[in-house]
Amino acid sequence: MDNTLIDRIVGVFSRAAMPIVSCALAMAIAFIPGTALAGADDEGDLDAPNAAAGGTSAQSAQEDTAIDDAVNIAADGKSASVEGSPFALEDFSRSQVGSNSDVNGVYAGYRYFVSDESGSLAVVAADELTVVHVPPETAQAVGFDAESSESRGFLKQLLVALDAQNSKGGATLSAEGEWAFTGEPEFERDGVVYKFDQELKPGEFYVCVVGADGSDVTQASNPSYVRLTHADFATLASADQVSVIGAPEGFEALASFLKGIDYSPLWVTLKTTLTAIVFIFVLGLLAAYFSLRIPARAQDIADSIFTIPMVLPPTVCGFLLLLAFGKNTAVGQWFIDIGFPLIFSWQATVLAAVVVAFPLMYRSARGAFENLDPNMLDAARTLGWSNAKIFFKLMLPLSWSSIAAGTVLSFARALGEFGATLFLAGNYLGITRTIPIAIYFEWMNGNTDVAIFWTVVIMAFSFVVILFINLWSRRTTSYRRGMEA
Predict the structure, then answer these.
(1) 83 and 221 belong to one structural domain
(2) pTM of the predicted structure, to 2 decimals
(3) Which ranges does the record mark as transmembrane (predicted)?
């Protein structure tokens, strides 16, 4: 995790309740007509230079964070101001990717959608160059001077801070490297043309990057190839017209963070796991009992069938279940015909959890039954006990410690199931998104603080459940010893 993400996490958690966070983390381990160029050596009002856009060095990350700290950023990450600057930014947005298709049969270049109105500040970030465009009338209105090192420095601070706040793990802007500030609608560098405020469709304005000869500069074979990382857009306004409401602090920050979380993965996980453990418990006991009452050769085959999900990768289990219950199979089509499509439904999460966790219950129960004294069972039969009575009155109580351990292991396995569930049930918020799936996709989307929250939740929940079952198991063990005595 880089320092930018760490700063985001600390901004939410550590300022709120340091003891709580410490424990949780331990558990989880502007512009005028024309063009002006600015390099790292003429920004005397900035901190030491940072790495180029997308860079990841520790030094540059620390310096970007220093710039970040000097900027007042709104809690929603959409506006920012910096002390001493006559202008500020608001309505900030970021496009991680653009489009490279033709528009009305004409190739306009690689384009980013900006807004339904013209006049926005736009930033196009590439590996070697960051191009910033501000309409000249906007630059004049807010007091931005592209020839002024101070003006460029203020704007770079604002852009770097807001870009980092909205990066979600993607490449970020840096104060180092070459920045080009322009108020012209077109800016060319090394055979690459950056076009701004392009109304390619009625009421739709874009930023386009295209070769001077009209070619696609995102193709590696192009002599003018440029690797674009992302684009930013914002409104440049006078500082006294932008209201920057910072993030809450203390316990208000924690309350705000908790209030903003979607808790549906917790309810889906609880509902799935609790339902699955009932099936796992019953099927595991029945399978263990059945496998001991069939011929020895058949036992080996049955045992292999019941155990194989434990050694297969979860994604393989999910793929096999998808092949078995998909809509192109007879079974899957039958479920669809009766109005109960199984795939990509909540029931599919239960099925996946049962399949991958069942072997743990089965192996624990079978091992416990095999260790029972057969003479004691035969004696019970001579007293006229039925097989059902022997099972419930003798076998279950005497094997309960191992059965409880198998239940705990199965519950934990079902609670943490990811691969088979994602393959069979997908990722549908409020329906099939369990906590493990939420952790993965929150992290992939750059919401590391939310991913850490769910990690702490699932660890704490697992700890409480296991502790409860262990205490219960100890009590039943004492009962068993009393019976044996």
Answers:
(1) yes
(2) 0.59
(3) 12-32, 274-292, 304-326, 338-362, 390-412, 451-473
